[in-house]
Structure prediction request, 336 residues.
Amino acid sequence: MGEELAPVAEIQATDARALDALLKAAKTPFVIRGLVADWPLVIAGRKSGREARQYLLERQRDRPFTVSTGPSNAKGRIFYDDDMAVNIRTERTSLREIFDQIDACETHAEQPIVYCGSVDVHHYFDGLHEANHIDLQGRNCLASIWMGTRSRIAAHNDFPDNFACVAVGTRRFTLFPPNQFRNLYLGPIDNTPAGRAISMVDFQQPDFDAHPQFRDALAHAQMAELDPGDAIFIPSMWWHHVEGLDAFNVLVNYWWRETPAFMGQPQDALNHAMMAIRDLPVHEKQHLRELFEYYIFANDAGSTAHIPETARGVLDPMTAENAGKIRSFLMKALSQ
Prediction:
């Protein structure tokens, strides 16, 4: 990009308890060098990509994996073509067949995209987690593995907190605070490579005429280049652009949320609001904005103090029971 970006803060954690304290306190990203350097997968990958692939093959379960493939002229960028169709296609096949594809192109200067993203470690491998994991002190995590050729994943954000460990290859992370979404020029919400809206800016060759506010985003950006064994914490809602820089790359990450799962996904509420609110007359939207402030964002005693405690229903603090009532109500309403 040509700009000198601020580095992501580097912190040390000597044990699981120290890491737990860091994660509880952190509001911004941080890197821990060498945290998982002793993982057997990391050690295998330091020998060669082929050694790492063999290590994974020996622990795979006998079930099809989902793989995304794309053309070599995309230079690893998972994005859109000129017609705004996503430039990868997905299929299900064996991990051995996927790795055979990578074997065949590992030495090519321009590799095709061969990418397995967000593979559930527990569901697809035996013993991989037990030998290669970090102690996150009781957090209910989704452990995923990401494997593939050189790749460029456009800037996007996720709702859960994310702790990512580089196992094979080098990865570059470019991070932006949540409030920078306007300056990242987000693409479609319903047509995305992986379910989240992505930045339309090409980070290798940004077009500042088409995307002038991207300069403002870069002024708030942080960057880290991680080697095998390094780890990075990406807080919920932070935007992150991720590049796998080597011919074969593996990342293991852990997602968790501090709020109960029964609360659902905020993106679902945004999608529903697009259908139900966005195209209303301005005066109606203004009234609804005030209602949202009253019931959702302020959410103080003033909205319920006049209602008997036994009659507040879903206006009470959210519980699994109340969430179930709302979900049932919405499903019935949306099916009509």
Notes: The two ends are 50 Å apart (CA to CA). The first helix runs from residue 16 to 25. The mean pLDDT is 95.
